């Protein structure tokens, strides 16, 4: 087989497969199976195929779909919600830690702060259970002041009503 026809998987592995066969293999894995991580077909090879190494040998529609499937696979590994701002509704992903607890988050699209736990507008100084009851703008401003000044809320000084 000519060296120009041999498939090269970036610097991960090189096997004597024709590029056309690898391209068909990728197409089936992506379009029929919705597979994100496609393993090399080399005997006992444990490497995944590199999408950018494969891009020149596969149709652009297959490459685009593969990128979409890879993105979905990546995002599904993280906690995610939609921005609570009715005018935005962008997907927000908690990339801080896998299965980590994120409380305060900022939408990358509209820049609004919100609570990742209760999925409401940020409620500084108030617990999630209380945030749904906040209607008075003074309560909201007081909560923001608590946060800005790093004040601690003592339950016996500020009773729950």
From TrEMBL:
SUPFAM superfamilies: RING/U-box. Pathway: Protein modification; protein ubiquitination. The keyword Transmembrane helix does not apply. It is an enzyme of class 2 (transferase). Transmembrane segments: none annotated. Gene3D superfamilies: 2.20.25.20, Zinc/RING finger domain, C3HC4 (zinc finger). Residues 1-161 form the RING-type domain. It catalyses: [E2 ubiquitin-conjugating enzyme]-S-ubiquitinyl-L-cysteine + [acceptor protein]-L-lysine = [E2 ubiquitin-conjugating enzyme]-L-cysteine + [acceptor protein]-N(6)-ubiquitinyl-L-lysine. Its cofactor is Zn(2+). Keywords: Metal-binding, Repeat, Transferase, Ubl conjugation pathway, Zinc, Zinc-finger. It holds the Pfam family IBR. GO terms for molecular function: ubiquitin protein ligase activity; zinc ion binding. Its EC number is 2.3.2.31. One of its GO terms (biological process) is protein ubiquitination. This is RBR-type E3 ubiquitin transferase. It comes from Citrus x changshan-huyou.
